Amino acid sequence: MKRDTNRIMTTHVGSLPRPHDLLDMMKARLTGEGEQPDEAAYQQRVTEAVAEIVKKQADAGIDIVTDGEASKPGFFVYAQERLGGLEPRPEVKRAFYEAERQAFPEYYEEYFARAMMGGNVAPVPPLFCVAPVTYTGEEAVTRDIANLKSAIDGLDVAGVFMPSTAPSGVGFNEFYDSEDDFFQALGEAMRAEYSAIIDAGFDVQIDDPFLSDIFGTPDLDDKAKVRKADMYVESINHALRGLPEEQIRFHTCYGINEGPRIFEPQLGEVIDHIYRINASIYSFEAANPRHEHDYHVFEDSKLPDGKAIMPGVITHASNIVEHPELIAEWLVRFANIVGRENVIAGADCGFSSQACYHTEVHPTVIWAKFEAMVQGAEIATKKLWG
Asked: Are 65 and 162 spatial neighbours (Cβ–Cβ below 8 Å)?
């Protein structure tokens, strides 16, 4: 990932709202309902949407841009489209954030109905591994790469990245002899996508909210949490072996967007596992009030040499636009601990991890947040470099 040692650069986590007409086409393809779009017309609309999204990022002043994940129906569904050996089971109800749901059942019943899964273009069934895992997404990732290359042509951007799911975000094992074998196989399969993105000259971002979620799981004791986290880290590093670390960034978050969020772990519980991942940039939530204090982690847990952090300074969990002066304060605070050359301004998480009609943060507000982040980075740069 390109680093600038003379200023604070800006980027984000990846997913952005898709245009409504593209969502209509995507929904028809996924559900089989209604008039089916012509495949060529659909792919052309994806290409156009990527160009539109990338230009808006550049116009907003974002340094390191991406495709907004415009082609992907969502964080979960896209794994089904690009991996063989997985079987969707719509009849199985997946448990989400049980401690939170049990503590605030009335709130989360309403929340999940209207947000996150409620507005998706298609259901998100859990996936079960029933055969050897293989990567089948060569054509899809090639299209994604071509669309992004076309979109950045002629634009003045400092860098380009493309998100890709971590092995932990794929599904459940019913085929391999052990969970370790399952996640190693997933890592081997996803390696094809990571390598393709890097070979194209982009940075790859490994998205893994599930690593942090482990430490908020109430039915695991401390030893079991560490064991499971070790397994996730090993599967990622297996997938990344031999790939250039400077082109790899890692993102983790806490799953829920808007809610009480009192049962999720703190950064200090997971930081040692994050540091073991073979990436050059570590992205994490820092802008929401449950985690603003997490900067203290870096006072006690030293950032490894050659690494950088990408704290969220705008959040996907609120329609309040963070003030640029506050963003600058956050960035300066991190810089004073880990070094100004080791901080990049980012977002807490993606703004549309699932393709949906109603994102929790309104699209017009998202772009206002981006503009505030750019302004905040400029203020921080003046304070840090003079």
From this structure: no
Specify which residues 308 forms β-bridges with. 281
220, burial (CB in 10 Å: exposed 0-12, middle 13-18, buried 19+): middle
Whole-number Å distance between alpha carbons of 164 and 14: 10
Which residue stretches of 222-362 are H helix? 222-240, 267-275, 297-300, 324-338
From the CB of residue 268, how many other CB atoms can be counted at a distance below 10 Å? 15
Q: How far, rounded to the nearest angstrom, does the alpha carbon of residue 90 sit from its chain's CA centroid?
A: 24
In this predicted structure, the answer to whether residue 194 has a pLDDT above a threshold of 90 is yes
Q: Tokens 């808007």 map to which residue?
A: 258
344 conformational bin, left if phi > 0, alpha if psi -120 to 50, beta if neither? beta
Rounded CA separation 9/100 (Å): 35
Q: Give 325-357 pLDDT, tens digit per residue.
A: 999 999 999 999 999 999 999 999 999 988 888
Chain-centroid distance, C-alpha 83:
19
Phi, psi of 63 (to 5 degrees): -75, -45
Q: Which strands sit side by side in the sheet containing 308-314, from one edge to the other?
A: 9-10, 344-347, 308-314, 281-284, 248-251, 203-207, 159-165, 64-65
Q: What is the pTM of this model?
A: 0.95
| Domain extents in the chain | 9-385
Which tokens belong to 185?
A: 């196989």
Q: Does residue 242 contact residue 268 with C-beta atoms inside 8 Å?
A: no
Average pLDDT, the chain: 94
CATH 3.30.110.40 for domain 9-385: no
Distance CA 63, CA 65 (A): 6
User: What percentage of the chain reaches a pLDDT higher than 90?
Assistant: 80
Whether the pLDDT of residue 257 is over 90: the answer is no
Is the separation of the CB atoms in 59 and 118 below 8 Å?
Answer: no
